[in-house]
Amino acid sequence: MIEAGQGPDRTAALAQYRRRAGVYDLELTLLEPLRRKAIERLALERGDFVLDVGCGTGLSLELLRRGVGAEGRIIGIEQSPEMIEQARARVARHRWRNVTLLGSPVEAADLQESADAALFHFTHDILRRRDAVANVVRHLKPGARLVATGLKWTGGWALPANLLVLPAALRSVTSLEGLRQPWSRLADSIGPLDVETMLLGAVYIASGRRLSPPAAASSTRRRAAVGAAR
Ligand SMILES: C[S@@+](CC[C@H](N)C(=O)[O-])C[C@H]1O[C@@H](n2cnc3c(N)ncnc32)[C@H](O)[C@@H]1O
Fold first, then answer.
1. Coil/strand/helix, residue 146
2. Which residues of the chain have pLDDT under 50?
3. Of 10, 65, 136, 219, which has the most beta carbons under 10 Å away?
4. Which ligand 1 atom is the nearest neighbour of the CA of 105?
């Protein structure tokens, strides 16, 4: 049971993804175009080192590998043993040598080097943990690119769409805290983000760069194309 205002709950998240791991890839099928869009926004270059934060079963790995090439590197970080087991099987199946998987909470992940880019794809619980966001941002090079995607509360005339957001969120997250602007802790840490919304404002892609030195800004700049927050 999720209580209003409460932050992410690790024990609940582990149980949630233990139950969901077997059907996760199937459930995500309809959202794959969004993954492609998010990874395009990362503007990866050959040879880049990229973090797949909360990598789950590794659904982003193939596209990330296409971006960084065989000479680039990817680290996937995932706390659920059942989810990362599938990611490991995927890596083994494809014989990807430049993918490393860390079975760890993001906030405790032992990252040894700084990355060129980081992807947070449908990782609301991670985005709402200051310590997890801080650990990732600490391990980004100045100018590194970040993209976060996921569900958000919608507003205004599209308010009824929240009836669809709620069950989807309850299946994926352990905290509804921050669902109006899930990217806000990231913006607090790195500065303004471009935020694009779609599907009546129920889904967002936020992107930005880690500035040098990191900006302590809390504002977000919305892309003119998407208009006011719904
Ligand atoms: C909705 S899934 C997204 C998986 C993947 N990013 C994708 O796009 O398919 C969220 C994932 O975040 C993981 N997760 C949640 N909190 C975490 C944390 N603090 N550290 C590491 N992984 C976490 C969950 O175990 C789950 O696999």
1. strand
2. 216-230
3. 136
4. 20
